[in-house]
Write a structure and sequence with these properties.
By secondary structure, this protein is an alpha/beta fold. It has a domain of 102 residues: HUPs (Rossmann fold, 3-Layer(aba) Sandwich). It has a five-stranded parallel β-sheet, sandwiched between helices. Helix 3 packs across helix 5. The radius of gyration is 16 Å and the shape is globular.
Length: 147
């Protein structure tokens, strides 16, 4: 029998909902002997174009805290029997998630939705990250509802 999923992307924003999505990603990975790429997208600060080039290497300064937090979550929540890596990106979350899935060669994206009640007008202009990922991803997306 072939594996359904070999590489799983799990974007998190450090809230309880995204931790539930990570737990599900771990269960799917364990069942499929898959690897997990745990990721976080940091919005680009408006002042980033004024920073010296050395502040942007090896990754932008505004990503450092997120990377440390992401690495700690990986240690605490991903079983050692599951291959994993962490990545931080800067930009618009939906676009960065889809791009990372392509770069990683992901078979599946497991992510949370916040389920915030919004007006139709808010939804029309803002949408949701999960919805945008579902619409533009080339691989399946498993959306975990709020806990």
């Amino acid at each position: 029998m072939t594996q359904a999923f070999r590489k799983i992307i799990c974007p998190v924003d450090f809230d309880d909902n995204s931790m539930s999505a990570l737990d599900m990603a771990c269960r799917v990975a364990a069942l499929n002997d898959a690897s997990i790429c745990l990721m976080h997208v940091v919005p680009i600060p408006a002042h980033s174009t004024e920073m010296p080039p050395e502040a942007l290497k090896p990754f932008p300064v505004w990503e450092r805290e997120a990377k440390l937090k992401l690495d700690q979550i990986a240690i605490e929540r991903i079983p050692r029997t599951i291959r994993s890596e962490t990545i931080t990106r800067s930009g618009f979350p939906a676009g960065e998630i889809v791009a990372t899935a392509k770069d990683f060669g992901a078979d599946l994206i497991v992510m949370a939705t916040h389920g915030r009640s919004r007006s139709a007008l808010n939804h029309m202009f803002l949408g949701s990250v999960a919805e945008r990922v579902v619409r533009s991803s080339v691989c399946p997306v498993l959306v975990i509802p709020p806990i």
